[in-house]
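Quick entry, no commentary yet.
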Amino acid sequence: MTHSLLLEVGLEDMPAHVIVNAENQLVKKTKALLNDANLTFGDVTGFSTPRRFTVKIDGLAEKQPDENLTVRGPAQRIAQDEEGNWTKAAIGFSKGQGGSVEDLVIKDENGEPYVYIDKFTAGQSALDILKGLSKVVESIEFPKNMKWGVTNYQYVRPIHWLVALLDDQVIPFEVFEIETGKETQGHRFLGNPVTINHPDEYEEKLAAEFVVADRSKRQGMIIKQLEELCGENQWAVPTQYTGLLEEVTDLVEYPTAFYGSFNESFLNVPEPVLVTSMIDHQRYFPVRAADDETKLLPYFISVRNGNTEHIENVAKGNEKVLSARLADAKFFYDEDQKASIDDFNEKLKRVVYHDKLGTIYDKQRRASKMVETISKYFNLTADEVKQLERVTSIYKFDLVTQVVDELPTLQGYIGQLYASERDEDTPVAQAIGEQYLPLSVTDDLPATKIGKFIALTDKLDSLIQFFSVGLIPTGSNDPYALRRQAIGVVRLLLDLDNSGIELDVFINDLFAAVDLPEERLEDLETNKATLLAFIGDRLEQIMQSEYQIAHDHRKAALGSTHYNLNWMLNVALELKEQKETDNFKETVESITRVLNMTKKHDVSEDVDQTKLESESEKALAEQVVILQKAFEGEMAVSDHFKALVEISPYISEFFDHNMIMVDDEAVKENRLNLLGNIGSLAKEFADFSQLVI
């Protein structure tokens, strides 16, 4: 016979962005509790609304399976004395297993007799196991917790009720002094308290009290209502605002969509300002014409947490609120029109970037100093250098505009808009708009060349400056989003033509270009090494997430002495591709053998041809010369690996017929030098010692 489980955590309204994760954690951790207890179960369903997150499990076993185990104890020579009497070791073992010495038997195992005992363990009941759900609820993690009352409890919001049922029976436990029961709460304004007598009643009874517990059903209701409203009015369905749809789904328990309007004169304000005001401040869907989705209309759609009663009054109230918001946005935009870029730039001198790193204006100055280094490495044209110099001298000016102060998500866009309005060159304006890209691992890169370079310059400055003062992310702590900045640097460098860039030299030149204070220059090497490792970690993350490259291949590629990001990525991809080929194992083993032989010896690059004795030694020396010449030329990563494959049989032949550590010191050193040349070339390609065969 199987059973049904229901666990609902009821609390005050949670922030929308934590709800889905809370539901997922509850489901995952409840399943883990059952699996750890060897308690079988069937279908698992999660539910969530702003005031609750829930898990329902069907097909739950009544109890753990009984266990019959044969447990081995001490050897007979320890368990019995010379007269055959049981020793303290045997007595203690039998008691520890819940039996007595009469239950012990002796069996032979690999020629050694041991004592054994048959042990029966009755399976624990599901009800007893499920009392552990209190720990599950307490273990749910949130980005921020709060305390309430005079207690020391911390949780995302105060818990007000707990429903925990095994069929019709309450599972007795408490969390933060709240005891479990059968009573849950309906909609805050439309519903009433409701008693759940069995888990199968959960959805239906809550729905009767205006709570749609299934998140996907709630979102489906919102989408259907949006489609109906837009169909009636010949509007385009606002499906492009997926982030807003997700947020609204987690703001309501019973959704009802409605629309309102605003004064058409507000359409004279730049569209992103209006759209951002509607979305960020009010959670409204902007409305566009069905026959021209580029045309913004003076309407909005919102979703009420309730039914249709008095919906007209609700719409009017929202119209008043939005009109005030849009009036503010128009005022801020109009005020900004009174200032020039130079006016805004002057204000940046009073805006602190960080108390150890000066102002935003100082950050712009540092970016300007980096232009010469950037242009040297990437061979920018004179016009491109001129454009990049102009961008770096003004690209942060919009941070002190009134529109960005009110709507921070428009930073960059407002800079581009205002620069265009003030007759800056188009590439300059576009680059200002793209300076923050990419915002994530999957976000789009800047579309323009100058946009890519200002984004790269800005992110490198942030990394160099924060690392130079020791403000380095540790654990999950990253208050300045430096991991995101580093991922952006990696993605930009992978996208740009950086085939000739050795990243360690590049970073060193940038350190010098920004003219760090003397006290920070003292730690330059340590800071640079830490920064390079930090950037390498981000490249490894991309190798794993985007390319599914195995751990040993990633580490081998990152260990290359040719510290170029594109090179290392291509090496990792080449190793992944070559792993299943016939020559891979032999090549890796031979190169690894070379590295192991030479890692404890200082070797020069010179090989004395007169001290080559055997034919296999001479043949290998000839192949090393060929390998050196090949590596000096412009070769694809695949050709480098092919060259190492081709020398591999000569290495094996050399080891088969020659001793390295011979008595003749000159011959020994010459052979180590020969192998050392191979090792140094192999290290340019990858760190073969990291590969697992």
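second:
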Amino acid sequence: MGNEAIARGALEAGCAVAAGYPGTPSSEIIENLAKAAGERPIYVEWSVNEKVALEVAAAASFAGLRSLCVMKQNGVNVASDFLLHLAYSGTRGGMVLLPCDDPGALSSVNEGEARHFAKLVEIPLLEPGDFQEAKDVVRFAFELSEAIRGLVMVRSVTRLSHASGDVVLGQLPDAPPSARFVHNGFVLDPMEGPVMSPPVAYKHGVLQDKLKKAVEMFEESPFNTYAGPEKPELVIITSSAAGLYAKEAIGLLGAEGSVGLVKLGTTWPLPPRFMERQLSRCDRFLVVEEVLPFLEEHVKVMAQELSAKIGPKTVYGKRDGLLPAYGELNPDIVTSALAKLIGKTHMAAPPEYAATAGQRSFFGAPNRELTFCPGCPHRASFWGIANALAADGREGFVCGDIGCYSMAVLPSGFSTLKTLHSMGSGTGVASGFGKLSPFGLTQPVVSVCGDSTFFHAAMPALVNAVHHKSDITMVILDNSGTGMTGFQPHPGLPRDALGKDAPVVDIAAVCRAMGARVEICDPFDIPATQKTLKNLLLEKSGVKVLILRQICALSPEKKGKKKFDVAVNEEKCLGENCGCNRLCTRIFRCPGLFWDAEKKCARVDTVICAGCGVCADICPAGAIMKMEN
């Protein structure tokens, strides 16, 4: 897998420290390095957030070690404060920042890009184009970092990180790394003096000199290639996984004799001599990339700068609408765009197939909306929250953020969330709402966040709310892990990324130390949860915290273990004739329950039922029974 190749490249480069924060599609990089830590001299950690991860990796670099920092695209925003300083201060041991972007937002709430940060902070950007390069580019990135004494960004995308291909492995280093932080030299000595970002004017000039050195190395990079005729009709310029789509498009149209392909692995800054050779091949170019026209705009700038030598050029891509500037690319999209430019026809799919595909899901399976898993504690939590707010009667609302619980904005979570932004922003936004009573706001304000998110970004928001006496109730959905990305540990758990024992940072104790009133409930105990929350909503003493603690149904500790056997008493279930009108399957909608149209009653799918027993508590007719195992 691409992420495994990236991890292997780091090991072959002698990386000694790797830190990150989990987020699809990047998580497997740290997980694979953690597995290797038992055999290789490498320290690996899941840091509390991306900024801290970058700081941890930077410390290793300052001590002369090679280090890697891994995150998904949203994480670079979190790390950007320190990132701006690190670019100026420089590094010592080779250091690589590796964000994984998610075109199409397949596992994200946006498809923001990390590439722009490379230009913003003026560090080199590399983009591997296949699985072999995923390993080799990472190894080269460490060498480049040490050559320029600066941070290097390597960008992956979902279809590279999570797809698989053949990789030829290299040798692993034998010599164990040794750390020593030298700091008593001259103040401006980058290798022996203090490590700091000021003085800015001087350091900014040094930073730009480092970029010039990187560009010189890019001129002869084996990761920049051209394939095709000497005098093509048109040239595609591409990078990353989009290069695979472009290569396939040329083949599908049989255009190998007329269309050239420039595949760039060093995408910022562009090497001018290499680009001059490629831009001299013809007059028309198509730039294929994901997502925004980052490479396209830089190609146009370079074409203009070189125009006296190479003449005017026409560059097609996203800015003229030939390719979409949002969403994932695929071979059909790229092939259709190329066909228009070279006068060929391409039918992506027969009209009759497209019409049928729009009406059916794959393999004839029924469509199913996004929903919480069977036995998910979040479903019970939002059932309790939604009903407590309804009983309160003051049109209270919930501010949320990113995690599995984001689905509570949908009917599967009873449409409970009314704001949804970045990690920790639910409580930050709520703290703002909680200060609006002087302006006539009387609605109860509730925020929700997960346990991992609490440590990542919600703690500062809670501090802000407590300090300013904001009238809010914060609900922490503690399911004992970073559930959305694979149960990676966080400071609230007794283990670290290496599986070793670690001290637990108690969430309730932290909240009490901040000055909040704290209550703890099991969300599966619906009556107690609703009673507690209703009491907290009525209290006007600033910040209240309700911790709803129940382990995720899919966690390794709980998966496959049922507390209850659940069944429906068909004689008691009145279904559509009941006053609830199929409450369990129409509103509660756990996938473990389904409506038997033939028998006119609810049924339990015993294969997927997790045995939480919550459905028995919400059935008004008492038709759902739970028997403890």
